[in-house]
Structure formats: structure tokens, C-alpha cells
Amino acid sequence: ANGGSSSLWPHPRSVREYASHRKKVHTVAWNCSGTKLASGSVDTSVRVWTIDEGGRASDVELKGHSDSVDQLRWDPKNEHLLGTASGDKTVRIWDARTSKCVHAIETRGENINIRWSPDGQHLAVGDKEDNISIIETRKCKALRTMKFPHEVNEMAWDPSGRLFFLTTGAGNVDVFSFVDLLKPPPAPPKPGDGSAAPAPAATLTGHTANCYCLEFSPSGERFAVGGADALVSLWDVKELACVATFARREQCPHSP
């Protein structure tokens, strides 16, 4: 939201607007229990809202980042842990019970993407230079940082945690074995560089322009991809096959 507020929309109209940020809101996410809503802003702050059944809300500000908070996500297994990615070259993990940062992890570049693995044991973080770091959350240590040869826009694990998906600027979705991503590179990278990414196990083609976003259905049987060609494609996870496309959009989808 440009005005620094977050809105609740059950379809088709907004029923509540919560304003606390001073600048644009770039990211919002619910925790796994649906009891808290987090928002991140260009003003460098993170807000965590506790909203009751009547829509009444109280919020706290999480302070620590020194640049825009471009994406945040909650731990899928722990309703209290929140991960945030910022342009200040750090990833932070917060405990919503205390409103404190429990871990701050330095990264190579300005971060724009973050995603938890389904079991909550890993974080994937992407930066503006198309590096992706895999962080082990127990020790809060980057296991590997990989440099991709193309624009990376979004990333996600499948519900089993065995496959790792990337949407790319080439209009494709690359699918990797997550175990393969953790293997040491064949040659050590130069100091300050990320290792070259391994080849994908599969490349899915269903768009004619940049793929922006990807999200799995609650059942884990389907995933949706949104692209700059104003298409949303729907895919079968087991077969990795496109089962439907939706083209009745006037603008490019940035979040399915």
C-alpha cells in the first residue's frame, strides 16, 4: 500500500484498514495460526498486528533493519517466529512474543525475497543480484550461496520439502532437488562470490514473459504461477504439468 497502511479484504471490499507505517508497505503475511498479521515497509520497520474476531487490532513495531523491508514470512511450524528480508544485507528472525530479534544473519547483497522450508529448518533468501542463500535456521548459518545466471523473482519449496522452485526472468519455472542444492560446489568460489548454481532437474515453460510469483495450494497438489504476460498458469505438482491457464487480467499478477 502506498499510504503506509494494511487492509483486510474478505471479497470484494475492504473491511478494515490499519495504518502505522510512515511509507509504502511492501509485504504482508499471516502466521500459521491466523492470529497475527505482519507488515514490512520502506520505512525500515516491521509491524506485527494481533487481530481479534471483531477486527480490533493492536500492533507492535519491530526495530532493527536500516533499509527497506521487502519481504517477510512466518515460520510454517511456529506461529511466533517471523523472518524478514531487507535491503540492509541482513535477514532477521523475530520472536513475536517478545518483539525481539533473536537472530540477525548477514548476507551478500540487498535482500528482496525470503521463504521458509515446510519443516521450518531452512530459509531461502534471494537478493537483487540473483544470489540465493540457503540458511539453516537452528544454527542460523548460511549453508550455501549460489549465483544464478538469470533473473530470479520468487522461490518456494513443494510441500514435501524435496523440490525447490524458482520463477525466472526468462518466463520459466526451474525445479531443483533441494538435496542437490546443498551439495558442495565442484570448485570453491572466489572470495566474495557465490558458487554457480547447479542445473535444474526440470524447467517448466508456460509463459511468454517474466514469471513473477509462485504459490502452492493448501492441499499441495497444485501450484500457481503469475507472469508479466498477464497469465496465471496452474500446475500439477506430481506431474509437473500445466493443467490450466487464466488470461482474463488487465495487469500483470505479482502475487497469485
Automatic annotation (TrEMBL):
It comes from Emiliania huxleyi (Coccolithophore). Pfam families: PD40 (PF07676), WD40 (PF00400). Keywords: Repeat, WD repeat. Signal peptide: none annotated. SUPFAM superfamilies: WD40 repeat-like. Belongs to the THOC3 family. PROSITE patterns: WD_REPEATS_1, WD_REPEATS_2, WD_REPEATS_REGION. One of its GO terms (cellular component) is THO complex part of transcription export complex. One of its GO terms (biological process) is mRNA export from nucleus. WD repeats lie at residues 18-59, 62-104, 204-245. The keyword Transmembrane does not apply. The keyword Ubl conjugation does not apply. SMART domains: WD40 (SM00320). It comes from the Eukaryota. This is Anaphase-promoting complex subunit 4 WD40 domain-containing protein.
